[in-house]
Write a structure and sequence with these properties.
flat, two-stranded antiparallel sheet, single chain, mainly alpha
Length: 120
């Protein structure tokens, strides 16, 4: 049973979709090569010089998720995950983008309802 104090809308830091980067000044994500050329020079005009000011990000997955999987699933010494019914559900729950999307949608809907019920 989940207590209200344990509930959060934020992405679980153990998830492979969790973004550990700074949300205010995130590093630049990888881009396809053709688009990358146009970011730096379009029709002979130089692009914005600060594209890489916050660094570059090589991968979009959470780099810590394989190590953190040991917190919620049995992992053998050679790195294989031993799934039971319970651990399979935990892995699916923590790494589900659909669940996270529904959770955020529910949160935003609740904000709308509370704004209508308790206007400023």
């Amino acid at each position: 049973m989940v207590r209200a104090a344990d509930f959060t809308v934020m992405m679980d830091p153990r998830s492979r979709y969790y973004d550990p980067c700074d949300t205010i000044r995130p590093p630049m994500p990888p881009d396809d090569p053709a688009s990358h050329v146009f970011m730096h020079c379009v029709d002979g005009m130089k692009g914005w010089r600060c594209w890489h000011a916050n660094g570059d990000r090589g991968d979009l997955e959470n780099p810590d998720w394989p190590q953190r999987m040991k917190e919620y699933a049995d992992v053998s010494e050679d790195g294989r995950v031993k799934l039971t019914l319970d651990s399979a559900l935990r892995v699916a729950h923590i790494n589900s983008p659909d669940y996270q999307d529904q959770l955020e949608t529910l949160y935003l809907s609740a904000l709308d309802v509370s704004t209508e019920r308790f206007p400023l």
